[in-house]
Design brief:
Number of strands: 18
Strand order of the largest sheet: 17-14-13-15-16-18
Number of helices: 7
Number of domains: 3
Largest sheet: 6 strands, mixed
Order of helices and strands: HHEEEHEEEEEEHEEHEEEHEEEEH
Structural class: alpha+beta
Helix content: 10-25%
Radius of gyration: 51 Å
Strand content: 35-45%
InterPro entries: c-di-AMP_regulator, YbbR
Shape: rod-shaped
CATH topology of the largest domain: RNA Polymerase Alpha Subunit, Chain A, domain 2
CATH architecture of the largest domain: Beta Complex
Distance between the termini: 202 Å
CATH class of the largest domain: Mainly Beta
Length: 337
């Protein structure tokens, strides 16, 4: 009987406890139940967004930015302008990386001329706190620091081929004749002049003006870009300068001027002389009366066509007088008597 009584009392106590728990729960929900529901809902949402979001990994390209480079210095070598950074973190933050301006800044405020190795540690990449930098490639960047100088260089024409037979290049003038370049001293010290790309002169018979690109190394292109200049090419005939004696041709009948010949110096196209033409046969000297005076001007003209002109340099004498001709006729008449 004693055992049975104890069991009943135990069951009764448990029922009392259950009633008490239920009563407390009812009391909890009966007070401000709406606020409690909202709080539990916000807690669930927060857990999903933070604790319950997937963690992923992504590799992004981060640009390298040089800052605080001292005046008068320049980075002279080609270095990797972007580095690869592997990140891990919440999916939403990782996928949003394209909208974030993340850069690898390299502070060169203490730089001096020479070679400098810049290590790309994970601590050098500034990312949101929810992200972790796993690795960086390349692990380091090599920079060549050089003095910034300015030099002037002549532009030189680089010609190939031959002009047409009988012709020659008289001159080639470049515009501009000089180009000023500012850049690393080690790069500019290797440059003596700026040469053009090949200019073909094959078959040229006349002067030409051409736009010609400069033949530049990649290092110089990075300083001044792809650059073109103007080449003024003057082409003319190959000539031989000769002096010949020409007889004077008088238009007025009965006149015989002295001297009967004049000395003419002229430039003769070599192509005509090579074809067997005689220099004296290419020119004619005329005597034309000067106004109402007794003097005559000596006019020398070319007998060949305009394609290969003869250019007169000098004529001696330039003028003769009728008085000398009269004196000549009187002397001749006296001798005949």
């Amino acid at each position: 009987m004693a055992g049975l009584g104890g069991t009943k009392m135990k069951n009764t106590w448990q029922q009392v406890k259950k009633v008490g728990i239920v009563h407390r729960l009812l009391s909890f929900w009966s007070r401000d139940w709406f606020l409690k529901v909202v709080s539990i809902w916000l807690a669930i949402v927060l857990w999903v967004l933070v604790g319950g979001e997937d963690t992923i990994e992504k590799t992004v390209n981060v640009p390298v930015e040089i800052i605080n480079l001292p005046r008068g210095l320049v980075v002279s070598n080609q270095y990797k302008k972007k580095i690869e950074v592997s990140l891990t973190g919440p999916r939403s933050v990782i996928l949003d990386m394209d909208d974030r301006n993340i850069v690898r800044q390299v502070d060169l405020s203490k730089a001096t001329p020479g070679t400098m190795v810049v290590n790309n540690d994970v601590d050098h990449i500034d990312v949101p706190r929810s992200l972790t930098v796993q690795r960086v490639q390349p692990p380091s960047i090599i920079l060549s620091i050089d003095k910034l100088v300015q030099k002037q260089y002549a532009v030189v024409a680089n010609t190939v081929g031959d002009v047409a037979p009988g012709f020659e290049v008289k001159s080639i003038r470049m515009n501009p004749e000089y180009v000023m370049i500012t850049g690393p001293g080690s790069v500019l010290s290797q440059l003596s002049a700026l040469q053009t790309s090949y200019i073909s002169l094959d078959g040229f018979r006349r002067s030409e003006q051409l736009q010609v690109p400069l033949d530049l190394s990649p290092a110089i292109v990075s300083l001044i870009g792809e650059t073109s200049v103007t080449a003024d090419i003057v082409v003319g005939l190959v000539v031989a300068v000769k002096t010949v004696e020409l007889p004077l041709v008088v238009q007025e009948k009965g006149l015989s001027l002295l001297p009967k010949t004049v000395s003419v110096t002229a430039s003769f196209p070599q192509i005509l002389l090579d074809k067997g033409k005689k220099a004296k046969d290419l020119l004619v000297a005329h005597a034309e009366r000067y106004g109402q005076t007794d003097q005559f001007n000596v006019i020398v003209t070319s007998q060949n066509n305009e394609e290969f002109p003869v250019k007169v340099i000098s004529v001696l004498p330039r003028r003769v007088s009728e008085g000398k001709a009269k004196l000549l006729r009187a002397t001749t008449k006296k001798k005949s008597e």
